[in-house]
Amino acid sequence: MIELEKNYNASEHEQTIYKLWLDSGKFNPDNLEEAAEPFTIIMPPPNVTGTLHVGHALFVTIQDTLIRRKRMQGYKALWLPGTDHAAIATQSKVEKLLFKYGIRRSDLGREQFLKKVEEFAQESHDTIINQLKGMGASADWSREAYTLDEPREKAVRTAFKSMYDDGLIYQENKVINWDVKGQTVISDDEVVHVERDAKLYTFKYSHDFPIAIATTRPETKLGDTAVAVHPDDKRYQQFIGQTIEVEDFCGEKLSLKIIADEHIDPEFGTGALGVTPAHSMVDAEMAERNNLPFIQVINEFGKMTVGSPEIIDTKTTVAREVIADWLKQNNLLEKEEDIKQNVATAERTGGIIEPLPKKQWFIAVNKPFILKHSELDGIESGQEVTLKQLMKQVIQSSQISVNPDRFSKTYFHWIDNLRDWCISRQIWYGHRIPVWYKGAETYCGVEAPDGDGWEQDPDTLDTWFSSGLWTFSTLGWPDQTKDLKTFHPTDVLETGYDILFFWIARMILMSTYNTGQIPFKNIYLHGMVRDDKNRKMSKSLGNIIDPLDMNEKYGTDALRFALIFNTAPGTDMALAENKIKGMKHFGNKIWNISRFVLANLEGKPNAEVEPQTDADKLILEQLKETITISTKALDEFRLHEAAQKLYDFVWHDFADVYLEASKSQLENESTRTSTQAILFHCLTTSFKLLHPFMPFLTETLWQTLYNNQLVEEPLLMIAKWPTE
RNA sequence: GGGCGAUUAGCUCAGUUGGUUAGAGCGCUUCGUUUACACCGAAGAGGCCAUAGGUUCGAAUCCUAUAUCGCCCACCA
Hints:
Blueprint lengths: L9 H15 L13 E5 L11 H19 L3 E5 L1 E2 L3 H13 L5 H30 L10 E2 L3 H16 L3 E11 L4 E3 L4 E13 L9 E3 L10 E4 L13 E7 L2 E9 L11 E4 L5 H10 L25 H14 L3 E14 L6 E11 L5 E3 L11 E3 L1 H10 L4 E3 L3 H10 L4 E2 L1 E2 L9 E4 L2 E4 L10 E2 L3 E2 L1 H6 L1 H4 L8 H6 L2 E7 L3 H16 L4 E7 L2 E2 L16 H8 L1 H9 L8 E2 L2 H23 L14 H22 L3 H29 L1 H22 L4 H13 L17
Parallel strand pairs: 1-2, 3-4, 9-11, 17-25, 24-25, 26-27
Antiparallel strand pairs: 5-6, 5-14, 7-8, 7-13, 9-12, 10-11, 14-18, 15-16, 19-23, 20-21, 20-22
The structure holds one RNA strand of 77 nucleotides.
């Protein structure tokens, strides 16, 4: 008779069990069956900026569940982990920390500052990796990658050079999103619009100007080069085509052409818009269409570069007031009203975005080029395509499947509106652009050019550039390694729907272009974890559920099961501590079922699993159905249904009904041994089915079985997934 | 303005291609300390599946409209 303690105490077992797995070497697929089919998940690299939060816990749980199941099914299962240098995020975090001591990055200089960032990143990396392990992640740590390590640097430079040579990466002076606070340009996708109160001023540039315009930003009007009206607007038709000179507008001379543009809403304001090509994305496009000059009046620090002495060199917000006053004094202001307005801010720093013209690096998404090598459905090697077409085609052809499918619509919509991707950043932490200058000469290469006097471009790349290469850079690309051939394209990309554009789209772009392959066959998107009232978790609300606390309190398996139970893919979930507690009870139930079964065994059962009674027959049927349903559900990424089925079977079929029935069957000599065999069979099969979801608990129990010579397989982790 | 989604038990949510009395967790009521488990068991209350039409032998599930809520994109300056 085998004695187990009365209740499952997770924290006593988890570290020991994790070490057992790690020491077995079986996280590394090289140590699994050689001939088997590969199954690959590349882990979305967590940023090296902080500690594990419940979002990480969710992705680890889902991916670990998928990978463990495949490993048990006999696949050569690779879950390749890594971390992300997260350029802006990490740099600004370190800047904040240094600022506590009154130090700015400029005080340290590039080299010294980067040293500080790297120290921070290393420490942060160690923390988060250990926390991932704590969640039970069965990842192959021997293959761990970092988006900013040397192999990835080589991949980044190779990809850059190749795109540069194909004319897909180009440098141009155009209006970009400037983050004044972060002192860098950011891409369109990193701009977040926030609603604010604003004043709408209606005014005329001068007394004899025929049209009044409305604006929330009078300070930008110093850079106006046109006034745009709707082509059908009867009020203004007579003026279209004229150019009107304004001798003095706050100290500047303006020359304004009256243009017609479909973009203008005749209902808003006066139906006329002062066009500021240099400081508005929309206006810039209008200026392109109408061949208007660009006049920059605001600099990188958000200060005015022109205007009367009271204006020049002041911040935009100050200049706005001064100009409003000037309009009033000169009797040009017709109206001033309060409105709600969406202001562009930077996702990372929260700073205001000041559109302004600047020379930057871009990826051309609409430019045709020859795709040298293609394994993509519907695209031949050597075919002329655009990056946009590649991104669209692989989803359209269903070569990549999206789960839930509705997100493919969002994806197409994004692609249709996609503009060239700005990839250069004026920050220090990141991959430096592999371009060197010497006088008028420019060199792009994987290595620095020979000879003296070459200066490397000071900018770094958008962090999503290197993340875009992640599925193949982690496998050794650009070298044609064995890993690359074996594991790419990968099988599943599992991540939150919030980075569909940032990351997934960029991976598709980079993989199809650089390798001619899709990066992954399946996209699985999970929802956001919210609190029990369905609010976002935030520090200010004080409703954050810390996964580490939960693991300590209820056991990692309880948290894992709670994160999957009763949730649907792609849908936000409410997570209450009580739910985790409930799942701990489920774990305890399994524990006590095991106690009962083990207490009633007399050594390893040697009777056949052959039903003698109605109860026997029923439970074996139910078990079979559970295997079928949970296997199918897992195949189709319906983890929650598999979990639900297992919960029902274990608790309500096995424990509530069969265990009770077995008590009398065990008393009866004629059914005793067969009942033992069935109990044991149901128990060990349940362990196997539950293992991907609750790895620690089930492995702990399995070890007890193994140590008592009840099972032959030393590790549940690589036990064979039940088929019947 | 464009797109997507949600509306199911007191709360938070599942419900696979339409198929018998609609499920779970938590909460609630009553009873029970019989040696797997009180981190439990038994029994139970609680739902015209948002509303109105339609398709069908049959609809929570498919279609149309309406209402309310949420998210994403655009950026009316």
